[in-house]
Amino acid sequence: MITVYEPWAKNVRHIDFNRAFLRTVSISYPERMIHYYGCSSQIDLLKNSSFKSIKFTPLVIVDYSKTNKILALWNEFKNLKQIAKHDSDLIFITNAWPHTIFFSRFLLRRKKVIFILHGQIESLIQKPNYRKIEAYYPIVFKLNLNQANFYYLVLGQNIYQNLCYRIPYLKKQLIWIDHPYIIKPVKENPKSKSTTYKLGTIGLGTAAKGTRQLLEVEKFIRETKIDNIELSHIGIVEFDFPNDSLIQYSNTKTYLSEVEYDNKVLGLDYILFFYPSNSYQLSASGALLEAIASQKRIIAIRNNYFEYIFNKIGDIGYLVNNLTEMFDIIKKIAANQDKEDDPQQINNLKSGITYFSPSYVASQLKNALSNKIILNKRI
Q1: Closest C-alpha to 100, from 86, 87, 118, 88
Q2: How many alpha carbons fall within 13 Å on the CB side of residue 7?
Q3: Do residues 113 and 134 touch, judged by C-beta distance below 8 A?
Q4: Per-domain boundaries in the chain
């Protein structure tokens, strides 16, 4: 039996990763039953994904932004205690926060556990803010140094290398695979010179991700009188754009359905990324993989993870050093002057997404577990 526990995500949050990771584990170990624990609203979505040999058990998953912190910690303790009661040869915890790792030290100490680390470990490259739970990762890592059955999984070889550099003592417990992503059917969308180009940001829009920079793009477009570029944000944005902005977005603060979200992303011609250049050193970008899966070229501020993906699959758009360079690219697009770049970039998108397919990542997962002798017997 393999257990997969999602302690954080509700509804469509992280649904693409959780769905793809379940499929990756299923492909890696087809003879094994998988027991998934998580929020009932997300389980309903996962059940529609044609999974076989997976048992789903709903648990209470609280909203950490709205729940009393003590109650949230107590709820996580109860969930882990319930999981500990069941026999399992291997447990994957798909979004491991410091308190989850800490409680596991006592409740899952006799189990083999792999904690998957996502964006919250970016806190390791920032000044510690001990009012936030992310600041306590170094403490729980050190507490578990002698826990030989605990491992940490990151989503990219560059992230593995960066984390080994920052926390050398973690190397023996650290493994990596690429972020799995399920390929989606994409219809060809040929362009003509008279076409209006649709550019936008996707996913959760926040100040930390630089989403407000979309306003700077709008300002540039107005000042240069470009009339064939439309701007939008697809997904929730944590702030409101000015009333006079022409940026299209939903201000309802509720998640779009998967179908509506995917269709809107497919309607874009280019996807913009304004993440700070010093970000994404320790985490993967699901939004970037969404762009690749949707075969959408990108225009992005250069950072370590985006460079890793470009080196892995080839040129899939433009990496720029600043907004001025981004404006130059947008001006070029508006004038329909980037046509020569299209074929190679589109081919790279089509072939590149296969490197993140569950079947490809499954081989990475099996190799990673074998190399660490995590699975030295049939599970």
Answers
A1: 118
A2: 31
A3: no
A4: 2-181+357-371, 197-355
Cα–Cα distances in Å, from 187 out to 184, 190, 201, 202, 344?
A: 10, 10, 20, 19, 18
User: Could you give the CA distance from residue 49 to residue 18 in angstroms, rounded to a whole number?
Assistant: 11
* CA–CA distance, 91 with 5 (Å, rounded to integer): 7
Task: Look up the CATH architecture of domain 197-355.
Answer: 3-Layer(aba) Sandwich (3.40)
Four-CA torsion 11, 13, 19, 22, nearest 10 degrees: -100
Query: Which candidate, 59, 72, 149, places its Cα nearest to that of 104?
Result: 149
The mean pLDDT value for 203-228 works out to 96
Q: Among positive and negative, which fits the CA dihedral 52, 53, 55, 61?
A: negative
Give the Cα separation of 215 and 187 in Å (integer): 30
Identical fold between 2-181+357-371 and 197-355: yes
User: Helices 304-313 and 157-166 meet at what angle, rounded to 10?
Assistant: 140
Is 57 strand, coil or helix? strand
Each residue's pLDDT tens digit, 294-335: 999 999 999 999 999 999 999 999 999 999 999 999 999 999
CB 369 within 8 A of CB 92: no
Q: Is 55 within 8 Å of 23 (Cβ atoms)?
A: no
Contact 182, 23 (CB under 8 A): yes
Nearest to 335 by CA among 248, 198, 217, 227: 227
Check whether 231 has a pLDDT greater than 70. Answer: yes
Contact 80, 58 (CB under 8 A): no
Split at pLDDT 50, 70, 90, the class of 363 is: very high
User: Strand, coil or helix: what is 327?
Assistant: helix
Residue reference for tokens 């630089």: 210
Q: What residue spans of the chain are helical by DSSP H?
A: 15-28, 40-46, 69-84, 98-107, 137-143, 157-166, 214-223, 258-266, 286-293, 304-313, 323-334, 342-352, 358-371
The residue type found at 367 is N
For 2-181+357-371, CATH gives 3.40.50.2000
The Cα–Cα gap between 355 and 181 comes to 9
Question: How many other CB atoms are there within 10 angstroms of residue 163's CB atom?
Answer: 23
